[in-house]
Specification:
79% of the residues lie in helices and 0% in strands. It is built from 5 helices and no strands.
């Protein structure tokens, strides 16, 4: 699923709004709106509600995309941490094996 900012941009383009025209519709500054679409800032709830009203869609359509993306990011990070942990454990086990060989050879 797409992050919230990408979903908003996709719908804005599909509805025929330019960045400037949509920013005026909300109403917020062009720069503030551009920052939302670029993912620099996250819109507050009242702005998300306003955007969904302008698009004539349920707010859950926007939020659902964001929640799935956050969940995927969390799962990807967890998977990466697990891989790093397994690598570190393997290194520790190899070192322990070396130590045991030295101890048992004496």
């Amino acid at each position: 699923m797409k992050p919230l900012n990408e979903k908003i941009k996709e719908i804005r383009i599909a509805k025929g709004y330019t960045l400037r025209s949509f920013a005026k519709e909300i109403p917020i500054s062009f720069v503030a709106y551009r920052n939302i679409e670029e993912g620099i800032t996250h819109p507050p709830w009242d702005r998300i509600l306003r955007i969904s009203k302008i698009f004539d869609i349920e707010v859950t359509e926007l939020i659902h995309a964001e929640n799935n993306t956050l969940k995927m990011n969390y799962e990807e990070k967890l998977d990466l941490l697990n891989k790093k942990l397994l690598t570190e454990l393997s290194i520790v086990n190899n070192k322990l094996d070396e130590i045991m060989k030295i101890i048992t050879s004496n």
